[in-house]
Amino acid sequence: MLNFNFYNPTKIIFGKDTIPKIKNLIPESAKVMLTYGGGSIKRNGVYDQIIHALDGRHVVEFGGIEPNPDYDTCLKAVAQVKAEGVDFLLAAGGGSVIDGTKFIAAAAKYTEPDPWDLLLNASLIRDALPLGTVLTLPGTGSEMNGGSVISRHSTTEKLFFLSDHTFPRFSILDPETTFTLPARQFANGTVDAFVQVLEQYLTYDVDAPLQDRFSEGILLTLIQEAPKVEADPRNYNARANIMWCATNGLNGWIACGQPQDWASHMIGHELTALYGVDHGQSLAIVMPGVMQHQRGQKRKKLLQYAERVWGLRGEDESCIDQAIAKTEEFFRSLGVGTRLADYRIPAESAPLVAARLTERKMLLGEHQAIGRKEVEQILSLRT
Fold first, then answer.
1. How high is the pLDDT of residue 175?
2. Residue 3 located in a structural domain
3. Residue numbers in the chain where pLDDT is lower than 70
4. What is the reported pLDDT for 72?
5. Is the same domain home to 191 and 306?
6. For labelling, which of 2, 23, 170, 300 has a CA lying 20 to 30 Å from the CA of 112?
7. Who contacts 60 (Cβ-Cβ below 8 Å, separation ≥6)?
């Protein structure tokens, strides 16, 4: 097992009817900004619960944070934070709203003129406003980590930061808030959670069996529970299990002492920035290609994955082929396309994405061995 540091200060409040507990989690004297997306929280009752819980508090609102939150939108929120003296942020939504709110929290404390610097160099984040979350769309795990992914649509860029300063103080996880999610959002979130686990698991063996078993447990649970939600969108237990899987998929537990990949995410970010595909869709396209292209380097873990997750026993190449096929079949069973052609993304996207990553001097994968040629080859497998 590799050396590791683990830090996670986020308090989780899980279960039905937990949103009212916000009133005991935010200081009474706080000036709170409630951030949210397109307004679904006003249709599903989450907004009313939050406002009731914060009755008597100083509350301002900032709505309209997009999927793949846009830098310029977030800067408008930063300006409002400063103008109104906000000192606590409360994000109500999925990973995009939470990611955007983390960036707002950091940018509000950044004194230099261009907060985009924070996405180029996370060490510049030395302080941030405190924030909490009410999760309504599981998948990214952003409710229990310090990461944020921000898009800059004007320049077709999508970058991320990780900082100890942007962990949520608390996160409310009420599975009932997910009952009314559109099928597409549920599917994207499930794919995101699944691939995030694979990014930390499908690398090379370092004799960390507990972390491997944690990862396999999350993957098996997602495979088991997702069809239950498809069959009955109001299945509370299945929703709860998927929500908790997604949170544990990226809160640091399964990464302890493990090498990590993240090539699928970095390549997927470029597809989203260039062609507007959903984050989960981009991962469903790229991950099977990474598995195929990197099968030699990942062979031992791929065979372990094949056996422990898909029940495929054997040591030959056909076992790996079947495991990759099963992964792709699972994504498709959720209604998520797994090929560039499914989203009318042209074949010439391969050299374009590869060139953009090269411009950023990014070498990907657990061995930093995936460069321009390899990225192009991976995407060429996904036409």
1. 97
2. no
3. none
4. 97
5. yes
6. 170
7. 31, 32, 33, 34, 80, 84, 86
